Amino acid sequence: TRGLGWLREQFDIIFLGPPYKDELKRPLALTAPTLRAIIESKLLKPEGWIIGQRQIKEPVAVPEGLMEFRQEKYGDTVLSFYKWQQ
Questions:
Q1: Where in the sequence is the domain holding 6, given as residue range(s)?
Q2: What is the DSSP letter of 36?
Q3: Is residue 69 within 8 Å of 81, Cβ to Cβ?
Q4: Torsions phi, psi of 76, nearest 5?
Q5: Residues forming beta bridges with residue 32, ordered by sequence position
Q6: What is the CATH number of the domain that holds 12?
Q7: Is the dihedral angle over the CA atoms 75, 57, 14, 70 positive or is it negative?
Q8: Which of 68, 70, 74, 81 would suit a FRET pair with 12, their CA atoms being 20 to 30 Å apart?
Q9: Which pLDDT score, from 0 to 100, does residue 11 have?
Q10: Residues 22, 55 contacting (CB under 8 angstroms)
Q11: Residue range 26-79, pLDDT digits in tens
Q12: Residues near 42 by beta carbon (within 8 Å), at least 6 away in sequence
C-alpha cells in the first residue's frame, strides 16, 4: 500500500487482490488499508469502481467516502464492489 503515491492518474476500475496470508500462513487483512491508500492517493475517478477480492473470514471496515454496493461469494473468497458514496 505504500507504493501508490507515485501514480499520477485516476482510474475507472481498480482491481484489488491483496495476499490473504504471509509466508508463515498468518492472516494479513490488507483490504481495508489498501482501500484507504487508494482514497488517500485519489486514484479512483468520481464514477469509478473498486473490485476487491478477499478471504471470507477477513473483516473489512469500509473507509468513509466509499460504499460497498455488491458482494459475491465463491467458496472462501468474496468479491466486493465499491464506489464513492453519493
A1: 2-84
A2: H
A3: yes
A4: -95, 15
A5: none
A6: 3.40.50.150
A7: positive
A8: 74
A9: 93
A10: no
A11: 888 899 999 999 999 899 999 999 999 999 999 899 999 999 999 999 999 999
A12: 10
pLDDT for the residue numbered 22: 83
Could you give phi then psi for residue 23, rounded to 5 degrees? -65, -15
- Go through 55-65 and write b for each residue having 16 or more CB atoms within 10 A of its CB, e for each that does not: beeeeeeeeee
User: Which sign, positive or negative, has the C-alpha torsion 19, 25, 30, 31?
Assistant: positive
Which three cell numbers mark 47?
Answer: 464514477
Helix, strand, or coil here: 31? helix
- Res 26: pLDDT: 83
pLDDT at 70: 98
Strands in the chain per DSSP E: 11-16, 44-55, 66-74, 77-84
Sort strands 11-16 and 44-55 into parallel, antiparallel or unpaired.
parallel
Angstrom distance (rounded) from CA 66 to CA 75: 25
